[in-house]
Amino acid sequence: MKREHLILIALLTIATIVRIYTLGDAPLWYDEAGTQWMGALSFSNMLAATGGDTHPPLYLALIWLIEHLGFKIGRAHV
Q: So what's the pLDDT on residue 77?
């Protein structure tokens, strides 16, 4: 393997590690915070909260499931 390829692989590996390490540092945007908030509600309250939304509730139902299985989507810095 050429030296240039090894350097490129090393740089990409370092960049990937740095990105994964700092993934949770950025604050959530407004729409992401709203999604996280709705995912933390009870299922019936989440469905009621989507009543005035323009999007179907399937996406938020999946977010709700992921949140309640123990995987945290993120936390807003507000």
A: 42
Indicate the residue type of 61: A
Would you state the structure tokens that stand for residue 75, as one six-digit string? 């936390």
Report the distance separating Cα 32 and Cα 72, nearest Å.
Answer: 13
Residue whose pair of structure tokens reads 């123990």 in the numeric block: 70
pLDDT (tens digit, 9 = 90+) per residue, 22-50? 776 777 788 888 888 888 899 999 888 88
Q: Provide long-range contacts, Cβ within 8 A and 24+ apart, for 59-67.
A: 60/35, 63/35, 63/36, 63/38, 63/39, 64/38, 64/39, 66/39, 67/36, 67/39, 67/40
- Token pair recorded at residue 60: 């938020």
Distance in angstroms (rounded) separating the CA atoms of residues 35 and 54: 13
